[in-house]
Amino acid sequence: TMISLENSAFFLRIDPGRNLFSVEPRQKNAPVLNDAHYSVRYRRGHAWHLQDDVLPAEIGEQVEVESLHGELRTRTIRFGPNRHGLWFELTFALPRSLPFLLWRMVIKNPGEHAVELGRIEVLRAGFASVSRAAPRRQESEYPLGDYTFPLKGSLPSFFSNGWGSWNHTGAFSFQDRFQTTRFGWFNGPMRVNPGTPQPRTPGHFASDMFAVLGDRVHRGGLLLGFLSQIEHFGSVEVLTNPLTPALSLWANGDETRLEPGGAVQTDWACLQPVQLDAPDPLGPYLEAVGRESGVVKKAALATPIGWCSWYQYFQEISAEIIKENIEQARLLAPDIGLELVQIDDGWQAHIGDWESFSPDFPDGVGGLAREIRANEMTPGLWLAPFIVHPKSDLAERHPEWLLRNALRLPVNAGFVWNAFNKALDISQPEALAYAVEVVRRAAKDWGYPYLKLDFLYAGALRGERFDKSRSRARILRTAFEKIRAAAGEDVFLLACGSPLGPAIGLFDAMRINADVAPHWFPRFMKHERLFRHEPDFPATRNAVQNALTRAPMHRRWWVNDPDCLLVRPDSDLTLAEVRSLAAVIGLTGGSLLLSDDLKRLPQDRLRIAKQLIPPAVERPLVLDWFDEATPGKVRLDLSGPAGSWHVLARFNWSDRPADLVIDLREYHLDPEKKYIGREFWSGKVEVCENGRLRYEEVEPHGCVLVAVRQLLEGPQYVGSALHFTQGAELKTWEASRNRVRFVLESTGKISGQVVLRLPGEPRNIDFSKIGLGMFSLPVTVDRRLRLQVDFL
């Protein structure tokens, strides 16, 4: 019996008699799925089995149910029993008010024998087998299915989301190779979900949690993924070769035991049509994920602004160094608005020994928290509660807490701190209790209301766990829930080095990119050549990648943390690279932490940080998110007392100087209208009459940052050197026939130029005439400045 379901976004046909379903988006330029399969790989005893045979099916009635996503029209199909007594339920749901197709699978074991679950594949179109390890079936046994782009001349491309904080996220064309590490033994555990493939042939890609398969020519696509990673980590695999298109979406069963009488349910799988050039193409999905994972939007949640010890001192810190920077942060706080001092790695005796301290912190860190608070700033502390150094006392005292492999050896958690580290088995109640107590003590006993929890991937490594009944995602989610409860809702929790999905709704902020570094390209032990192409190693190049590609997550799942801003002149970053890093952080609006020696920062470099404060509230439009390996075109839409305007950024990610053109068409602005543009770094002002602004010889890895306003009659605010938005500093604006009054505000004292367009020359204030009716006025703003400009 064929079943049909439809809503405004999809037409769905289900063929239970052949284990097939086909999906046709209403959007004509989105991929169509033909004859997709679903299957389950499981082990009974020592043998693996692939359940994709056709079983007797019971088809339920159509049911309307209420959900977190509004009213759903649902249909459930029940299959079984199979030859080992397992039953399967597949529920399809179409929301009335959202452009989604949702479905999930339930596996029940009413028999007498336990089974272990492998890949729970909810969609397969084109791949011959659910697993490379499973026997390949004859093509004549069932159609393989595929996906097709309905319009001729399509250019298939793929947007991949990385598993965790540091993992590369970005777009690929069908000719590209997937970005992955070449140093798997050293680096892989930190970067790779063991349930997600790491393809190496052109056109073969993978993704975690969600992905977008689209067409760069006709500008349509299909988002596919899971609405949460509470029950399982979800993976996507795709072949974009037009001759052999293939697509697969599955939940990682992680060889968990399904006991007799037990049942397992996947998270909701999701399809959403995507218009690639829409202002917010991923918005409906990201909002739904937030609802599914319990995100509570905290309107009053402030963006962290402060200082972190790591990128100046790394592990070479001491209580005295921290005190010196506390004092300097106190002196700078009124001028720049620093509110947080975060002590990073180096205060503890060993990774894992969180109850004992380095000799350079003889009195611990509780006193430093009191000192930071006494200086009217927020104390912050770094912890890594799930990872264990092999030389730590913890590893010696509690070897039974360590996660082990099938040979009963400790699992490799990656090469960090000049050692191959170990991981806690956080399914072991005592091990988890220790990690939770570490967090509770730091927050409650030592007095740190801001905690950065790092290397959290260690809680989700593959191994022989104490509790074999829960998946890695479910174990990690439970641990995060207990940590949040122990810390309390009033503690700001930042996750770092963490798988994204299980953290949604429980952390206030998330590191969404690779570590920044005082150099552009990746290095290891001062060597660059072998590591230059590593996508996830610490490097400023790698940091800006995900800060742009994951910008839409900001304030939907958490506050994005793009890592620290490095502005000191004695790093290996050029001034152009520092400005590009600052522009990316400013445009994407996440956390803003300096990580330089505050005592040695010259005023011109400190000024770059001041020009980013306060952070932007609006999310930017990353316009070429699906077209470029690293996006280079960003538009930020703003409004204020003097009207609306746009900040347009164009980046030169090449290794050579380049002429950059801002074409208003590419930024979805009307080229027929006249605009005034002021470039922030150079101060260049011009009227754009042909829809293009040109900037010559922009340095390698540099950028232009242009505020554009539509040319209007009468007095007009054009921009300033006070804030990167060139308008956020403007708090009031009153214009009349021969006078303007306006108020400028800043977080501290800052001097710079303000550019006005006036019908006549100012007669009561110093100015420089730019031409075209525009005038540059020198100002100094110390918190607040009220100005009146009279003109003839």
Structural overview:
The chain has about 800 residues and is of the alpha+beta class. Helices cover about 15% and strands about 35% of the residues. The chain is built from eleven helices and 48 strands. The strands form nine sheets. Strands 6, 7, 8, 9, 10, 13, 14, 16, 17, 20 and 21 form an eleven-stranded antiparallel beta sheet that branches. Strands 1, 2, 3, 4, 5, 11, 12, 15, 18 and 19 form a ten-stranded antiparallel beta sheet that branches. A hairpin with a 5-residue loop joins strand 9 (about 85-95) and strand 10 (about 100-110). Helix 9 (about 540-550) runs parallel beside helix 10. About 55% of the residues are buried.
Blueprint of the fold:
Elements: E1 3-6, E2 10-15, E3 20-25, E4 32-44, E5 47-51, E6 57-59, E7 63-67, E8 70-79, E9 87-95, E10 101-109, E11 115-125, E12 146-148, E13 156-160, E14 170-173, H1 184-191, E15 204-208, E16 210-215, E17 220-226, E18 234-239, E19 246-258, E20 262-265, E21 269-275, H2 283-292, E22 305-308, H3 310-313, H4 319-336, E23 340-343, E24 348-350, E25 353-357, H5 366-374, E26 378-383, E27 387-388, H6 393-397, E28 415-416, E29 419-420, E30 422-423, H7 429-445, E31 450-453, H8 472-487, E32 492-495, E33 509-511, H9 540-549, E34 559-561, H10 575-588, E35 592-594, H11 603-610, E36 621-622, E37 633-640, E38 643-651, E39 658-663, E40 675-679, E41 685-688, E42 692-698, E43 703-710, E44 716-720, E45 730-735, E46 739-757, E47 768-771, E48 774-790
Parallel strand pairs: 22-23, 22-35, 23-26, 26-31, 31-32, 32-33, 33-34
Antiparallel strand pairs: 1-2, 2-3, 3-4, 4-5, 4-11, 4-12, 6-8, 7-8, 8-9, 9-10, 10-20, 10-21, 11-19, 13-14, 13-16, 15-18, 16-17, 17-21, 18-19, 24-25, 27-30, 28-29, 36-37, 37-38, 38-43, 39-42, 40-41, 40-43, 44-46, 45-46, 46-48, 47-48
Helix pairs in contact: 7-8, 9-10
